[in-house]
Design a protein that fits this description.
Elements (H helix, E strand, L loop, with lengths): L9 E7 L4 H13 L8 E12 L2 H12 L7 H10 L8 E10 L7 E8 L4 E6 L12 E6 L2 E6 L8 H19 L18 H21 L7 H7 L1
Length: 234
């Protein structure tokens, strides 16, 4: 990555990877669009909006706008900003607003802000909700440059945080695997799964079924395993 991402970020780890910026962004796209593959606490995610960013100043403006938005409903803001940024190209970067859907219940859903800076091969993640325990509550980021994948953290981070250990032991290995996967070296684009039912509707039904039948399933669990883990987590 060329240059420093700024004083708000602290470099925590770097990894040698035999890949390219194209594969870095392909791996990031998999994680952004299908976070549940690596995070088993999630049913999936819903992309609420995307804003093409024209330059660094605009990136900071959009970042502050999204992070300081007080209303839990982003619909009006997204519609307004998508219209305002409609003419921009995607060459500098993209801001993404996504809803992260928890397996636990709807109160654990989170809004995550993702900022892509293509000029620096830098992507950052911000959790807009209180700590729900399903995604890291502190800002974190990844960059790529000269054959190295770098992990950065922002304010509110602690080494002992379980989310940090999840990033190190689960997320980073997955990203590296996706980056180095031969399939990612082709010209195939990463595409989202085709769905007959929206992930939002599926989440509502999933949690309703657990609330309705979960207790009964736990009571009649026939295996010598923890029923709460399999019924309520898996």
């Amino acid at each position: 990555m060329e240059g420093s991402p700024g004083e708000e970020w602290t470099l925590k780890r770097s990894y040698d990877v035999n890949t390219s910026p194209k594969q870095f962004w392909a791996a990031i796209d998999i994680y952004v669009e299908r976070s549940h593959i690596v995070n088993r606490r999630l049913i999936g995610c819903q992309i609420l909006g995307k804003f093409p960013i024209a330059n660094e100043q605009q990136l900071e403006t959009v970042k502050n706008l999204l992070l300081n938005h007080k209303n839990k409903d982003f619909k009006e803001l997204i519609e307004r900003e998508e219209s305002a940024f409609k003419g921009n190209s995607h060459t500098f970067g993209i801001a993404i607003v996504k809803k992260v859907l928890s397996k636990l219940n709807s109160s654990h859903h989170s809004i995550e802000i993702v900022l892509k800076d293509y000029t620096r091969n830098f992507v950052s993640f911000f959790n807009k909700q209180a700590d729900t325990g399903v995604i890291p509550h502190f800002p974190y980021a990844f960059s790529y440059g000269e054959g190295r994948l770098c992990l950065w953290v922002g304010r509110g981070f602690q080494d002992s945080d379980p989310s940090y250990q999840w990033i190190l032991t689960k997320l980073v290995p997955k990203l590296i695997k996706w980056m180095e996967d031969e399939a990612n070296r082709s010209d195939n684009q990463v595409t989202t799964s085709l769905r007959l039912v929206s992930v939002s509707d599926y989440s509502v039904l999933y949690n309703k079924l657990k609330a309705t039948y979960g207790k009964q399933l736990v009571e009649m669990w026939p295996e010598n395993t923890d029923p709460y883990k399999f019924v309520y987590e898996d």
